[in-house]
């Protein structure tokens, strides 16, 4: 295969649907600063797709996500950046979607080209969105919601 590999960027909407974008792989850039324009483009795509109202963007704390240029643009365009703690990707609901994409499209596969692989990924995302449900009532009985281990402070 001669085509360069591409990374999948996912966004989960309130309706439970997943919007996937295939982008140039991160490893082609030499530093986090070189990836700032790519992340800003993603933020701008979100704002164009959802032009009104406040957007909440949950992401890991990877270098480009927290640069001043990104923070300033997002603040000016009513996008609130919410960073998951280091080594706590499980707090971001979209992370489980990466596992599902890998399981349903990549595990045990041998695609003849990157284009065929991308077609399988986008096909899975279309199927998944047809069968989507809003994520609600996450961890209803979780101690995160009603901690019983906090000290009683008067």
From TrEMBL:
InterPro entries: RNaseH-like_sf, RNaseH_sf, Tc1-like_DDE_dom. Transmembrane segments: none annotated. Gene3D superfamilies: Ribonuclease H-like superfamily/Ribonuclease H (3.30.420.10). Residues 38-103 form the Tc1-like transposase DDE domain. One of its GO terms (molecular function) is nucleic acid binding. This is Transposase. The lineage of its organism: Bacteria, Bacillati, Actinomycetota, Actinomycetes, Pseudonocardiales.
């Amino acid at each position: 295969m001669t085509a360069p590999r591409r990374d999948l960027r996912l966004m989960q909407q309130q309706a439970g649907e997943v919007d996937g974008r295939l982008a140039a792989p991160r490893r082609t850039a030499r530093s986090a600063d070189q990836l700032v324009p790519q992340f800003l483009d993603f933020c701008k795509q979100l704002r164009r797709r959802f032009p009104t109202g406040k957007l909440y963007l949950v992401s890991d704390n990877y270098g480009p996500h927290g640069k001043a240029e990104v923070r300033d643009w997002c603040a000016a365009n009513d996008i609130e950046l919410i960073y998951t703690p280091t080594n706590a990707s499980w707090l971001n609901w979209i992370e489980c979607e990466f596992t599902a994409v890998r399981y349903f499209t990549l595990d045990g596969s041998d695609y003849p080209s990157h284009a065929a692989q991308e077609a399988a990924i986008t096909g899975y995302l279309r199927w998944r969105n047809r069968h989507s449900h809003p994520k609600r009532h996450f961890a209803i009985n979780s101690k995160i919601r009603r901690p019983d281990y906090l000290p009683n402070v008067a």
